Amino acid sequence: xxxxxxxxxxxxxxxxxxxxxxxxxxxxxxxxxxxxxxxxxxxxxxxxxxxxxxxxxxxxxxxxxxxxxxxxxxxxxxxxxxxxxxxxxxxxxxxxxxxxxxxxxxxxxxxxxxxxxxxxxxx
Length: 123
Description:
With 123 residues, this protein is mainly α. Helices cover 65% and strands 0% of the residues.
């Protein structure tokens, strides 16, 4: 992307854009934090996306065509991910619950949930 963003000013501008993008992605559960945790905070994600939208509107006519396309594409993708976030959060929470049950099976087999494979009383 450095070939596209030739000027130092353009590179600094897109560094700001990248910070807001990363914030939105973090709060949409798309990337993990420094500790490997996934977070969902749709309010924070929306705030970052709204700021990117504001920057798009305020810089209209001041960006090169390629810069404008990058910014608008990024905003569009984040908005699509925002719509998908609640389902993704539900799926991740269900997977965490499943993994916890599995972990419980191996750490405390006597109290863990189990399935009966062969019932001696049936035979």
